[in-house]
Design goal:
This protein is of the alpha+beta class. It has 11 helices and 10 strands. The structure holds flavin-adenine dinucleotide (FAD).
């Protein structure tokens, strides 16, 4: 039996988050886009409403929500504003490898406090010369007695300027390839951690993206996440949980773009009738509805597999690639429906088009998702 309807509890969760997005996220979206200010008020409100870090296990005081539930939250927050939503989701990405691998000591010290207080985290893997090619990272951590010494630099790290700690992937054994990489928790305030300027990006402009430099940073051995040499698995494994959520955020953005397009197409008249009555326009919007629905089903399938404890790498990449490409196309078509007004920042869809582009880039580009899908299809042949 295949079920496509959320349970009553899940429906209540969606409605709760939607109301939150209506009251706390969407009204702030334009301000944060224009000023690029970090959305602390929305974050505090989300924390208060229990919508931050929802997958922290109950053992550590969290809600222990699964990936399907988190996908509902991500879609609604993104419907409100994906710039604000990304600041929340980046916490989830940083937490994922830690929840999967960390000792009780690290969970108690770094993860449990995020339930009671507003604390931000960052996932620091990409480097100036290694994005898609994670195996090419150069940051090193060398063991010296009871600590490691970290040197190198990271790039494009979301939440870098506001986080309390980062999950950092570093090379601990150059000869061992990806098996020579280890994950660490590094506090932003430690000596030798230098965070760069806030990058000015095309979209999602309130999200805090920066480079980070590590110069002889001393990391206590207790801050190794999981085992030495298992960092790659933890860092890459995190995407099985987070890519469906990025995809869900893309669905939320596309839904918002479509709603604006529907509204405008009913109001705007040309040649004596609302433009919705011109088939060229209504078909564009019909395709938006079709593709949003298809993307959401891919998200739910990938998230459901994850919650069942089944391997979902291929499905997570399918959801991410399809939803990202779809959201960018839908946002672009929404601009088209608005005509000249769509190209102007007084109207909402211009921001959505700018915001949508990043879905094809972060957490693995659309090309890399296709690479993963193809590898999964051809593996063993
Ligand atoms: C706003 C923003 C936020 C981000 N947040 C984070 C974060 O929090 N933490 C983090 O670690 N990283 C983060 N990133 C980094 C992001 O994940 C990388 O930018 C992304 O993985 C691409 O890497 P790159 O920029 O080095 O591009 P490259 O890897 O240099 O790729 C350039 C182009 O070549 C294509 N390409 C590369 N290799 C192949 C291949 N083998 N086959 C086909 N095509 C290929 C890519 O798809 C792309 O189109 C963020 C990036 C941005 C812009």
């Amino acid at each position: 039996m295949i079920g496509f309807e959320p349970s009553d509890d899940q429906q209540a969760l969606r409605e709760h988050v939607h109301q939150f997005a209506v009251n706390e996220v969407r009204p702030r979206a334009v301000h944060h886009d224009q000023t690029m200010a970090y959305p602390w008020e929305a974050i505090r409100a989300a924390h208060e409403a229990g919508l931050m870090n929802t997958h922290i296990p109950e053992k550590w005081g969290g809600l222990g929500l699964g990936c399907v539930d988190a996908s509902f939250i991500a879609e609604e927050l993104a419907w409100g504003c994906t710039g604000i939503g990304t600041t929340f989701e980046a916490n989830g990405l940083a937490l994922e490898p830690v929840i999967s691998g960390a000792s009780d000591y690290l969970m108690e010290k770094y993860v449990a406090p995020m339930v009671s207080e507003v604390r931000m985290a960052a996932y620091a893997v990409t480097e100036p010369n290694a994005g898609s090619d994670v195996a090419a990272i150069r940051t090193t951590a060398v063991r010296k007695g009871d600590h490691y010494v970290l040197n190198g630099s990271k790039m494009w790290i979301t939440n870098a300027g506001v986080c309390d700690w980062m999950f950092v992937l570093a090379v601990t054994d150059r000869e061992a390839g990806y098996k020579g990489m280890t994950g660490f928790i590094v506090e932003r305030g430690w000596k030798g951690v230098e965070v760069g300027k806030k990058e000015i990006n095309l979209g999602q402009r309130c999200s805090d993206t920066r480079g980070v430099t590590f110069t002889d940073v001393e990391i206590p051995v207790e801050n190794v996440v999981g085992e030495v040499g298992k960092g790659w698995m933890l860092a890459m494994g995190a995407f099985d949980h987070t890519r469906p959520l990025v995809a869900s955020s893309a669905v939320g953005l596309a839904r918002s773009a479509m709603e604006h397009a529907v509204q405008y197409a009913t109001e705007r008249k040309t040649m004596g009738k609302p433009i919705a009555q011109h088939q060229a326009v209504s078909f564009m919007i019909a395709e938006m509805a079709r593709d949003i629905e298809a993307a959401r089903l891919l998200v739910w399938r990938a998230a459901w597999l994850k919650d069942q404890g089944q391997r979902n790498t291929k499905e997570a990449s399918m959801a991410k690639a399809f939803a990202a490409d779809m959201a960018h196309r839908v946002a672009s078509d929404a601009v088209q429906v608005f005509g000249g007004y769509g190209y102007n920042s007084e109207y909402p869809v211009e921001k959505l088009l700018r915001d949508s582009k990043i879905f094809q880039i972060y957490e693995g580009t659309s090309q890399i998702q296709r690479l993963i899908i193809a590898r999964e299809l051809f593996s063993g042949r």
